[in-house]
């Protein structure tokens, strides 16, 4: 109970002989044994009370549930719910084995890939084009703004509210057919020419 070795017990006996004396030693031994029995009885009673409290509180089920939670494996539970009979796993393994057994495709002959398809552009062609465009852009513009404006240039159109550009042809002012003017067709060009004639007449007057 007290985890004492024989040497420690012998030492205790010698000390008790010295301090208690040989006459009172039997009485002390009986008192000590009686005290040890009392302590053991109290410990057993305490253990019984604890067991009764556990049974009354039904903590055994809680202990079992805690053990189940400790041994819970989420991967196995999901696998059992999705594939309880292992059909999917066997199907995947069979497909993998069949694919491994099939012979591989022969490599294409030399020169086939080179003859087919257009030639690939260098990987840095776009970067070079952007760098050249940035060199032509104004210095005060940020690089991102300059690149955005350069990419939007092909989509720009002349506003319809602006008058057409005029050029002299055989002594007469003739509108130049730009993108904005061409969208209006020949009628727009004729109207512009009529307007220019009227302006010339007013200028002569």
List the SSEs and their pairings.
Elements (H helix, E strand, L loop, with lengths): L5 H14 L5 H33 L1 H12 L3 H9 L4 H15 L10 H4 L9 H12 L6 H10 L13 E4 L2 E4 L3 H26 L1
Antiparallel strand pairs: 1-2
Strand order of the largest sheet: 1-2
Mean of all residue-level pLDDT scores: 71
Question: CA-to-CA gap between the ends?
Answer: 136 Å
The helix content is: 55-70%
**Which class of secondary structure composition applies to the elements?**
mainly alpha
Largest sheet: 2 strands, antiparallel
What amount of the residues lies in strands? under 5%
- Total number of beta strands: 2
Order of helices and strands: HHHHHHHHEEH
Gross geometry: elongated
Number of helices: 9
Using the CA coordinates, give the radius of gyration. Answer: 53 Å
List segments where confidence is low: pLDDT < 50 over at least 5 consecutive residues: 179-186
Can you offer a commentary on this structure?
This protein has helices at 6-19, 25-57, 59-70, 74-82, 87-101, 112-115, 125-136, 143-152, 179-204; strands at 166-169, 172-175. The protein is mostly helical. Among the domains are: 6-57, no CATH class; 128-155, no CATH class; 166-204, no CATH class. It has a two-stranded antiparallel sheet. Strand 1 and strand 2 form a beta hairpin.
